Amino acid sequence: MRHDHLITSKQLSRADIETVLDRAAEIDADPSAVADRHANRLLGLLFFEPSTRTKMSFETAMKRLGGDVVDMGSVESSSVKKGETLADTVRVIEGYADALVLRHPKQGAATMASEFVDVPLLNAGDGAGHHPTQTLLDLYTIRENAGLDDLTIGIMGDLKYGRTVHSLAYALTNFDARQHFVSPESLQLPREVVYDLHQADGAGIREHDSLEEVLPSLDVLYVTRIQRERFPDEQEYQKVAGEYQIDMETLEAASDDLTIMHPLPRVDEIAPAIDETEYAAYFEQAHNGVPVRMALLDLFLQEGGDGDE
Length: 309
Description:
By secondary structure, the protein is of the alpha/beta class. It folds into two domains: 9-130 and 289-300, Rossmann fold; 132-287, Aspartate/ornithine carbamoyltransferase (Rossmann fold, 3-Layer(aba) Sandwich). Helix content is 33%, strand content 15%. The chain has helices at 14-29, 53-64, 86-94, 109-114, 132-145, 163-172, 191-199, 234-240, 282-287, 289-300, and strands at residues 42-47, 68-71, 99-104, 121-126, 151-156, 177-182, 204-208, 220-223, 259-261. It has a five-stranded parallel beta sheet with strand order 7-6-5-8-9. Strands 2-1-3-4 form a four-stranded parallel beta sheet, sandwiched between helices. Helix 1 crosses helix 10, helix 2 (53-64) crosses helix 10 (289-300) and helix 5 (132-145) packs across helix 10. The longest helix has 16 residues, at 14-29. The termini are close together. InterPro entries: Asp/Orn_carbamoyltranf_P-bd, Asp/Orn_carbamoylTrfase, Asp/Orn_carbamoylTrfase_sf, Asp_carbamoyltransf, Asp_carbamoyltransf_Asp/Orn-bd.
């Protein structure tokens, strides 16, 4: 596939996804095979929001490919604090790096930024919009544990503001997947996302306000945090905080083969006791960020830097 940037999972075909996942599997099996492939290449990190897994896994991925990173650092210590625009920031850092990774609190920021740079730009999350690199590691984890076809998946929690949810839902329309969305009414999927999913070929989606009715049929349960920081009103957050949680008692009705995932960080939506069970795949999921992001960077930084994937 050919893409200059990775902004949203909506731009990815099934073939695109499989190209990335297959490359990630090769790297996962033998990381040493790509250890020096991108020596002297630099990845620019521009994180306007806090991040642990995404930022560190991108940095790890680039260094394991033989390259290095240049990091803008915190917003407070950068020229953004002086009023520099995002367009100017990315144009400046483009001059220092061979590719850019951008996280920004405003939805659509990655799309706008990509219009000002010629090096590949990868969206590491734009507000409540999209998080395509997370989606690819999610798909890799699902494929390793349950397969991507003839899949029944439940996606539970904050579906309104959850960019990981939006990206994953769009990507799954490329596969034979039945998607069940579980949330309080106030945190349902945005109507425009629902419309898009219904329009997509093969998209089988259902919405629920309770996990109980669908849990026994699920191959995968993807749990998300209620994102306090995205609520415009603290009182609205308090109405739903802690409403959707799973523990060992909840899972009595689940299939023995259920895989539980979470993009992390979690608060109290998954009981710690589940960590020690065979259901839990969320720490494996976090680990998968390294080989998947190595695969993405490898594909974007091919000889000549032409944006092929």
